[in-house]
Amino acid sequence: MKCNVKFVKGKAPQSNDDFSTFWEWYFPSNLAYITKNFILNSGFNSNLIQDYFNKWITNIHPDDRDTVLSNLIWYFREKAPYYKCEYRVKKNEKEYIWILSQGKAVWNSNGRVIKMSGTHTDITSRKEMQQNLKYLSEHDPETGLPLTTLFLKRLKKEVKNIYSYFTVLYMSIDVQTMDTSNMCGENKHSLLMKVIMNMKHHLTSKDMLCRISENEYTLLLSGIHLETAIERKVADILKYTNTPFLINNEIYSITINIGVLACTENRRNVKRLLDNARLAMQQAKVIGPNNYCYYNSIIYTNYTIIL
After folding, report:
1. Mind listing the pLDDT tens digit for each residue in 102-140?
2. What CATH number is given to the structural domain containing 36?
3. pLDDT tens digit string along 60-105?
4. Percentage with pLDDT > 70 across the chain
């Protein structure tokens, strides 16, 4: 079969983007012609490719294959004006890159596809920028901890899993010094980071520590709901309040109050779960510094009346 690729002055057609690969795919022969193959290193040794579909699919990231196939099937079925899809392809045996695949098919009088042509454009830099921006929007810049949005997403997954048992600890963490007029922000940050990093070090891969506000944090303990296990975790956290810290000749102390919400059969809206854990933390503050309190219906009733 002859490949109808037009060349200008002996060169392959160019686009405004030097990172684009032009391709033409022929049916039913499943033959393809690619003018550049710098992004198709794995399995493609020439510009003319036999059995193109199968070779191309094997180069697509396993997590993206279903999406690519679904989009392609939809495009052929609906005969849409243009095909467009973003996905990852193998650059070499250890590395994938993101591409934007765009194309347009030609149908014969019987409604069968006879050719499809378009471009693959390397968009890895844009995707990495988007991922970085997404990370920054979901994580606290000071501690690197997830923010409320991510915590609620994770909590929602736990709630949906009827076999899941978990506990939410809502914590108020305050850094104090004897001379409040001389509190150094850098020292406060240093101590806070030390406490947070220590907490993270003792978590399992299923747990999640999150920053809600300047002084408030939440900890999701996955698989923990028995009181003895909860008490051990709470005791580990409160141990930071036992000893003063000396930083740059200034003595600092940590005050922690914890609200405990153990979730077993009674599952509610995730935002309500977080709010209830916070109510328990506020009750712990009423009891006094460095205390904890379990959420119960009496706490909810009392705070509802106050509000």
Report:
1. 999 999 999 899 999 999 899 999 999 999 999 999 999
2. 3.30.450.20
3. 999 999 999 999 999 999 999 999 999 999 887 788 999 999 999 9
4. 82
Sheet holding 113-122, edge to edge: 48-49, 31-34, 20-26, 113-122, 96-107, 83-90
Condensed to tens digits (0 to 9), the pLDDT of residues 194-217 reads: 888 888 888 888 899 999 998 999
In a domain, 130, yes or no: no
Is residue 9 in a domain? no
Segments forming the whole domain that contains residue 36: 20-125
Whether residue 303 contacts residue 279, with contact meaning beta carbons closer than 8 Å, is answered with yes
Long-range contacts of 144-149 (CB under 8 A, 24+ apart): 145/196, 145/209, 145/210, 145/211, 145/217, 146/208, 146/209, 146/210, 146/211, 147/210, 147/211, 147/212, 148/210, 148/212, 148/274
Which of 73, 93, 125 delimits the end of a domain?
125
Identify the sign of the CA torsion 67, 72, 75, 81.
positive
Of 125, 159, 184, which marks where a domain is finished? Answer: 125
